[in-house]
Design a protein that fits this description.
The protein is mainly beta. It has strands spanning about 5, 10-15, 20-25, 35-40, 45-50, 60, 70-75, 80-85, 90-100, 115, 120-124. The chain is globular, with a radius of gyration of 13 Å.
Length: about 120
Amino acid sequence: QVQLVESGGGLVQAGGSLRLSCAASGLTFSRYAMGWFRQAPGKEREFVVGISRSGGSTYGADSVKGRFTISRDNAKNTVYLQMNSLKPEDTAVYYCAASGNVGLFEVPAEYDIWGQGTQVTVSS
């Protein structure tokens, strides 16, 4: 069974940090580019950061550059999202996703597999 399971969400004060994890199973993890998306209430799902299959390339949305870092451990079938200097506007459900296509993608339609999401709430 192919699945992605996110963990690490929670409640944090503005300026704080959180580290999200996404554990993959049932797939050859190193053959998938990975991405993190988020969706706030009443808003569309938006791209946050992405990482290539090898981990050699990453790309992030302007809103998180310099604050969020994506990384992966192919030996552990896990991708991480380190979030620093969190702001109230970062509050959302965060999803990890896997894409079997080659490259880095911001569009949700490019991703084949999605996790169930983890809530991140940043208080002011």
